[in-house]
Every structure is written in C-alpha cells, then in structure tokens.
Amino acid sequence: MKKLIVNADDFGYASGINKGIIQAYKEGIVTSTSLMIDAPGTREAVELAKANQNLRLGLHFVFSDQDNRLLRLAKQAVSVFFVKAAEEELKRQFEKFVSLVGKRPDHLDAHFHYQKLPRILPLFKKLAQKYKIPVRSAGEINFISRFSA
User: Fold this and answer.
1) 97 to each of 82, 118, 134, how far by Cα in Å?
2) What is the CA radius of gyration of the chain?
3) What is each CA distance from 105 to 41, 78, 118, 127, in whole angstroms?
4) How far apart are CA 143 and CA 35, in angstroms?
5) What local confidence, expressed as pLDDT, does residue 97 receive?
6) How far apart are CA 99 and CA 89, in angstroms?
7) How far is CA 76 from CA 68, 97, 100, 110, 119, in A?
8) Which of 59, 60, 111, 118 lies at a C-alpha separation of 20 to 30 Å from 36?
9) What is the DSSP letter of 135?
10) Eight-class DSSP state of 116
11) DSSP letters of 30-97?
12) What are the distances in angstroms from CA 60 to CA 65, 79, 106, 114?
C-alpha cells in the first residue's frame, strides 16, 4: 500500500509559518511537518502540534550558528571536527525535541536537505536506526521536491 505524505518544513520558524502549516493540515493538504527545535516560534509550534495530535511531527535539524558558517562548511564536509560537531548538535536537537514534544520525532530531516551530504547522512542513519525512525531523502522515504504542470 502506498501512502502520500505531504510534509511542511520549518515548523517553528515563525508564528505565520506555524499557523499556515496548521491551516493546511486542517484542510487536509499537509499530513506531516518538521519542527525547527531552536527557532523563535518553536514553543508555539509544539503547542499547536499537541493540539493537533494526528499531525505527524519530525525533527528538522538546523546547523546552529547564526552566520551560517557551518552551512557553508557543510557543503564540503571535509573536516572530522565538523562532522563531530554536527553529530553532537543533532543529538542535542533530538533530545530537546523529545523533551519539548514528549515523544520521539516521526522522521528526521535537515534544513536545506543537508542530511543528504555524504559525511552527514551516516549521522542521521545512525540515529534513525537506533530509534527506528525514517530519514527523509535517504531512501527510506521517496522525496519529490518539485512538481510541474
């Protein structure tokens, strides 16, 4: 049996995004969302998710420095130090998700799809295997990013 999952990223980024995702969920468009754990609207998003129990909720990992230095480095992902820092940050965000939401995420993914990077993907797969949850865009879930008419 095939199942269509329509996932909305960036839940928690801002109040307007949160409200739009919830409206799309209530109208039957969105079936899943991915929560940014350290964003300005995270607390509001968690409350909205708790009020909408059937909305699937995943962790949307975001590299944490404000100037996006780590995002630029992630494209190369050559540094062992960087990979270790990313692993620790992923673990921290996962644990904070569980603490705030009260359950494990339904899936894992990352802002700008950085979970697909060859040096980063194994970090996601390791965590996913440990908790038996899928990683979006890593073979477990077929990902279609664009549609055209």
Assistant:
1) 22, 24, 16
2) 15
3) 18, 28, 23, 11
4) 18
5) 95
6) 15
7) 14, 27, 32, 16, 9
8) 118
9) B
10) G
11) --EEEE-TTSTTHHHHHHHHHHSTTSEEEEEE----TT-HHHHHHHH---HHHHHHHHHHHHHHHHHH
12) 15, 23, 11, 10
Nearest C-alpha neighbor of 97 from the set 51, 49, 53, 139:
49
**Record: fold of 7-131:** TIM Barrel (3.20.20)
pLDDT computed for residue 110 by the predictor? 83
> So where are the chain's domains?
7-131
* Whether the Cβ atoms of residue 39 and residue 73 lie closer than 8 Å to each other: no
Residue type (1 letter), 39: A
